[in-house]
């Protein structure tokens, strides 16, 4: 994204991923800023003009989402085929730094948090781990701000919410079947002499 905007990577803040990992990242750049001041959408509008900022933002969001989906392979290729474990470790370290030390004032970061602890915002049901934008205040304290959602972000949240809810039902069914199977095996073992 920074390359596309012709800025250094550290200059972009508040680029968000909603929902879940894997191929289902909901990229939201509607709150992203360059240098803490200029909204990415404003920068794109200035670059393309003619009221085309919304289209340019949607195209950039799709390009970023595609890059996120392909990131693991790109990192492995850049490292000569080695697994991207160092990149993942760096991401974990950044996550822990923000969570424990706090982020910069006004900075949003995406974190997978338990929806019940977050107060179930944005219609996400209780009991799901979900990637929300959070502000970190240090000491492991965080909060989920109530942001205005673009139509694309709302659609991403709805899709991730549905996919995660379905996945939870599948896991519950598998656990229930395993418990029944274990109970049946225990009952048949207890009945034999």
Short synopsis of the structure:
This protein has 193 residues and is of the alpha+beta class. Helix content is 50%, strand content 17%.
Structure description:
This protein is of the alpha+beta class and 193 residues long. Helix content is 50%, strand content 17%. The chain contains 5 helices and 8 strands. A 3-stranded antiparallel sheet has the order 1-4-5. Strand 2 and strand 3 (25-28) form a beta hairpin. The protein starts with a helix and ends with a helix. The model has no long low-confidence stretch (mean pLDDT 82).
List keywords for this structure.
alpha+beta; L-2-Hydroxyisocaproate Dehydrogenase, Chain A, domain 2; 3-stranded antiparallel β-sheet; globular
**CATH architecture annotation name:** Alpha-Beta Complex
Q: Into how many domains do the coordinates divide?
A: 1
Number of helices: 5
CATH domain fold name: L-2-Hydroxyisocaproate Dehydrogenase, Chain A, domain 2
- What general outline do the C-alpha atoms trace? globular
